[in-house]
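Consider the record:
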Amino acid sequence: MTGEPTGRVEAHAGGSAQQANLGQGDMRVYQGTHMHLPAERPRTALFTVPPPPVLVGRVEEMTALLSKVRTARAAGRPVLVSAVHGMAGVGKTALARTVADRLAEEFPDARLEVELFGFTPGEEPREAADVLAELLSLAGFDAAQLPASLPGKSQLWRSWLAGRRVLLLLDNVRDADQVRPLLPGAASGCLTLITSRHELDALEDVARFSLDTLPVEDAIALLDHLSGRMPNPGEGHRAELARLCGRLPIALRAVGALLAEMADADLVEAMRSATRPLLNVPEGERAVAAAFAVSYHALDADAQRTLRACAWHPGPDFNACSLAALTEVAQPIAAVALAGLAKRSMLLRLRKGRYGFHDLFLGYALEYSRRHDARAAVAEGRERLYARLGAMVETAVAKVLGNASSPTPRYTGPMFDTPASARDWLASTAGELRRVALAALEAAAPVAFGLAEDVAAWLLMDDRADQAEELREKVALDAGRSGDRRHEARALTGLGKIARMRDERDRAEEFFRKAFELYLEIGDQVGRMDALWGLGDVALRRDEFDQAEQAFQQAYELGLSTGSRKAQGRAVTCLADVAAMRGESDRAAERYGQALTLYQEAGALGGQADALQGLADVAVERGELDEAVERYGRALALYEEIGDRNGQANSLWGLGDVALRRDEFDQAEQAFQRIYKLWSVTGNRRNQAGALQDLADVAVRRGELDQAVERYERASRLYAELGDRLGQADAICGLGDVAVTRDEYDRAAEAYRQARRLYEELGDRNGQADVSLGEARMADRRGDRDLACAAYARAGDIYRVIGLTDWVDHCAQERSRLGCA
């Protein structure tokens, strides 16, 4: 290496070293032997890192790696060894080569890549001694000069590195023992990049970088690059192909090559129709299958068994508790086993101690399970899983609802300390619970119906109505076929609640009535109460107050016969709602107060919050706004304690309404923005739309009409996308009111026409009255007294039918002001 650094360094092995500069090389004393360290070698032998491939994405990872190296060099510190780890085929080598290329000018003495075959199909991992002999040969040592022992070779290698600026890329490392003798030691001018499927925890002073699958956008960009052509606009096939490849570069490369020869749609169909996505992509299938096989066979027998047990799990993720149930091992041991598999990139780490398979690897793990595990053992493991999770979800849901002060008899694990801790567990486990419940139903497991119903109850609380409906429909069907009337009735009641929530009143009534008849048939009083509450609520939504009161009174009497304070409290709350809807504020306040006492005796926090909410609503009607704010605040605190988002939103809405009544627009905006954020977190678009309407109302009151229109329009679009005609009608009616304020009468008339049509289709008389009231105000503003009088009369008549006396009086006063006949 003429003109290159001569490496005048001190040997670190065999005691004190002596050194003499010989001009074209160094003379060292190594274990009593004088050795010549060559200084001149052909440059090509010392620059063996292949050119990097075209790298798509990975900007953040590459920036982080480069920053680590350059920060250390600028500070004069030894450059940390960097370990890039991740699953097979994720692109570790491509990233490391790209980083090496970016740093080329900073390491002019040598840039060396060594393939260690740690996880190469058909190859044994290389021994460190053999690798050192190769590296020392590249450095100019003859075979006769090399020490026989591994420590001797390692020390000689480090002596040669000292004082030089060398970049070493150690690719595909099996474990720490394989790579430790190759590291530069105190040679501070050197950088070592390591790629491995293991995290190599045993290595010290290592900067570790975990490489995940590509983001969707980068996966699509890689397919575009490899195919050499852009897709047709609007097809969306590339995104589907990226998903089918699990966004794993090794699979994307095989699929991208095929895209150069065939249509996107045909390849999507070929991959969708296979039992495994790559089955019809031979090159990709061979590469990924081989990569998984090498990693699997690198595990010891216990780890292999654990991985196969994870494959038994219905998915999509799991934790140590579930693995312990599947395998009958202690939970701490299961936790250690899962962590070990994640460190070897066989499992993905997820949030809160949860793990999962990469989509492509799961199929291979299941194949190994089919070969090695008895079907009976798999079935028994799943039965234990169903029982464990069934007991836990039953306890957690009861705790969230304020029904449990101790675990149920079936649950013997750690108790959930608070409703919030129970809700946190349910939220983190929701995906697993749903899939496990479906698997239990498919297997007709003894606990299947109860598990599915409890999971559905949670999913509904967590704003996942479609998923809850799917479970309950399957329970109703399977229970009906098996003659299990109780679980069939429970499922029907649950379906009624979902339909009621969607304002599908006829459908809800049908479900509740069928459930009531089944409960009556089997003599289940608690079930009858639940069905009666549903029937009463549907009647209340139709403004059929007598029918609603009759249903709630029956439920109250059943509650008395069972001695359940909570059931009585719920029935009394419902009776209070009827009184409030009828405008009977004194009677409503009395009943809400009675319900609060019953709920307190029962220790039902959610019920207490509901009663306080009702008392606050009554206080608002009476104009007792300070008292209302205090009660809404107490209700909000209880809802927050148990994690009830619906309740929190209702209390916040009450606080926002009071603020609007007081012209405290900032406080109102703040309350409704909190509601919007509450639902944005969960992705509940229906409730987001409701919050937007409230925010639009605030903008109207502030005179910010452009902002009001924008919010009403956003709400209307959301409701239309969801098929919620009632919400859409309310938002359109709001747009009509704004148009009236702006004297845009044609636009207002069209909005009212659309809203009226929707209200009439739904049979919503309150909405029809609101439209008539808007039309009356529009006519009044235009100076058309006769039309205004007629519209006020229509509105007043409807308000009278539904019992809203305050609005009846308001319409009468307006007619009197106009001098209507």
Observations:
- The chain is about 65% helix and 5% strand.
- Residues 453 and 472 are 7 Å apart (CA to CA).
- The mean pLDDT is 87.
